[in-house]
Structures are given as C-alpha cells and as structure tokens.
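Ticket closed. Logging final result for Sarcosine oxidase subunit gamma.
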Amino acid sequence: MADTATRHSPLAHAAGRFASATRGSGGDLRLAELPFLAQVDVRLDPKGPAADAVGLALGLQLPLEPNTVVHAGDRSALWLGPDEWLVIGPPGSEFGLENRIRAAAGDEPAAITDVSAQRTTLLVTGPRARDLLAHGCPLDLHPRSFGPGRCAQTTLARAQVVLVARDEVRAGFWVLVRSSFAGYLADWLLDAAAEYV
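Final structure:
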C-alpha cells in the first residue's frame, strides 16, 4: 500500500489571512509562514574540538556571543545558551544536517537533536514589523538594541518564541513558535496588525 500521508504545516489554514493582511497594509507589513524549516538543536562544549569541527562541517562557526546569529548560505546558527545552538536549514534538510553535525562531533560529548517538528516559523517584515512585534514582546526591539544578527528566547503575546532579527539581505524577523501555539500566535499577530491594514 502506498504511503498517502500528506504533511500539513501548523499554519496552512492561515495563509489566506496572512496574504490579505499583507495586501491591506500597502507594503507596510508582510506576514507569512515559513513551514518545515530544518531545525537541529546542538549542545556541546563551545571550547572543545567538536565546536570547531561542527563549524567547519556546516560552513559557519557556531556563534559564541550571547543572543547572536551567524548565517552562511541557506543555513543559520542561533546562540541559545552558553553550550546550546539551534541550527536552521532549508526544508527537508534536517536528516542530512543532523548526520553532518553528528559526524563532525565524532566521539566528543554532544547532544544533537532534530527538533524540526517542534516549531514553525513566522516571517514578519516591512516598515511596521518592529511596531507590530513591540505590541506583545517585552524586549527593546529598537535596531540599536535588537538589530540584524540578534536573536533571543522571549515571549510574544505570552507565547514562548525564539525571535531572530534578520540581516539587511534577509530583512525583517523570524518568529519561531511551538506548533501547538502557532494558531494562537497567528491570530494575535493578525489582530494586532489590524491597525496597519
């Protein structure tokens, strides 16, 4: 019997509402889901040989400065803690990414876990993106405090998220939210965006 399972993103039902809000804002705001991004949680000694080996294998060094992001091509590494990173890649690459990191870490103490199904990613861009997020986020989102290349584990509308300020090329923000809270957060964002539509 053929496998007929169809994969659905947590916010597939909201795509039309996101598009409508984006059109209504006149370019001031864009909301979209970036479904199925590969996400691999990496825990290891940042000063050990595994950190350098993983960086070489990924083509990017794991960031050592708190709350920063490093990008290389279609991959990003987010600093989540002194010995924890979230490596993000394109959809469908989680298996290869996890194996590449495991092989690079070798026999060094490390925990490498595919957490791709745990969260989905919302893209929030446009001149009003910071204003929209500031409605429900306790962080100072001014570019001097939370500019390109910064990330933080925080809350948005009381939902736990990982917030990423993208760089000039990758404008706007990523909001990584647990799949079980994605619908709630999408509704909140759309409601908060109403003043810009």
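The CA atoms of residues 69 and 78 lie 5 Å apart. No further action required.
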